[in-house]
Amino acid sequence: MPGDDKWVMFNLKASSLYRIKYDEKNWQLIAQFLDSPSFYKIHFINRAHLLDDVLDFARAGQLDYPVALDITNYLYRENHYLPWKAALSNLGYISRMIRGTESGDKFKNFLRRLVAPQFDKLGLESQKGETLLETLQRRQISRWACIAGHGPCIKEAVEKFGSWMVEGDPDKDNPIPGDLRSLVYCTAVENGGEVEWRFLRNRYERSNFSGETSRLLSAMACSRDASKLKTLLNWSIQRGSIRKEDSTVLFKAVARRDEGHDIAKAFLKEKTQDIFIYAGSDPFHVPKLLEVLASRMNTPTHLKE
Q1: Could you list the residue ranges that cross the membrane (predicted)?
Q2: Structure confidence by residue, pLDDT tens digits, 177-193
Q3: What gap in Å lies between CA 278 and CA 285, rounded to an integer?
Q4: For the chain, how long is the longest CA-to-CA vector?
């Protein structure tokens, strides 16, 4: 075995399906090696495996989060899709659990530091000749760059939305690439105001494509305006306001937002009877709403509720 100042790694290229819990010292040594120009000498499959393991152990309470997050510090160097996929799936959980707190703001800054160099390299829109993995990498990095408040990501998304708004027939001509629409719509509404929100509402009222209507409604829920979020929730139980199949989509979109979770929770409490009446014979409607609320509850008060 190597000395105390050397790290070890098992299950090379994840040849078997099991997690490996190293001692804290070994995790620290691995973190130091990853955050160096030689990080690529650890195979990208093992880099993904390390990230998934360490963050899962932290989530289970078997490892302190500072130790786990040290492993992620190198990600600003990481170019491969798989390690980022493993990391962001787990970091997203942390982000949800500390939303609305001082730690939540600090964590957003931490995420921005990691994703910004990658976004600046990849940009928002696909490039000619890029591989499938490069496309997937660009999509996940772009999403988190805008969520984390990276200025260039927000600026590019808002500009693309603006180019759509000035089209002569925006219901027919949408210059925004299909794989960017959810991100661009949401970012524009979140960082815009009444004009952007009403523009999407008008597009929703004129759209007959179910995939696009769901995307438009979800983006309208990205507003920071509490009154608009309440309006959307009221639409979700008013016959004729939206398509009935979009009711659950709309509630979930509001509830998943930091600004919307508590509003959606209060709405469910106050309008329980109306929601049951609207749901009719669908026994799964209310449980679906409860599921999305519960997934973001993160305080002792929430537990009692």
Answers
A1: none
A2: 999 999 999 999 999 99
A3: 9
A4: 71
**Distance (Å, whole) CA 8 – CA 79:** 23
- Two tokens at 204? 């929703």
* C-alpha to C-alpha distance for 13 and 123, rounded to whole angstroms: 30
Q: What is the pLDDT of residue 296?
A: 81
Residue 246: closest CA among 206, 210, 286, 207: 210
Q: Give the integer Cα–Cα distance in Å for 201 and 144.
A: 25
How does DSSP classify residue 295?
T
Distances (CA, A) of 110 to 35, 95, 150, 229: 15, 11, 11, 28
Q: What is the DSSP letter of 63?
A: S
Query: What's the predicted TM-score (pTM) here?
Result: 0.90
Residues of the chain with pLDDT under 70: 1-3, 299-305
Residue 139, both tokens? 């999509």
Distance CA 28, CA 47 (A): 14
Helix ranges restricted to H, the chain: 24-34, 44-59, 65-72, 81-97, 102-122, 132-147, 151-165, 181-190, 194-206, 210-220, 226-235, 247-255, 261-270, 272-279, 285-294, 300-304
> Comparing C-alpha atoms, which of 122, 179, 111 is closest to residue 149?
111
Instruction: Give bridge partners of residue 242 from the DSSP assignment.
Output: 239
Q: Token match 């959810």: residue?
A: 182
End-to-end CA distance of the chain: 52
Taking the C-alpha atoms of residue 282 and residue 213, their distance in angstroms, rounded to an integer, is: 21
pLDDT in tens, 256-280: 998 899 999 999 999 999 998 888 8
Q: How far apart are CA 183 and CA 124, in angstroms?
A: 10
Question: How far is the C-alpha of 76 from the C-alpha of 293, rounded, in Å?
Answer: 32
116-22-35 Cα angle (round to 5): 30
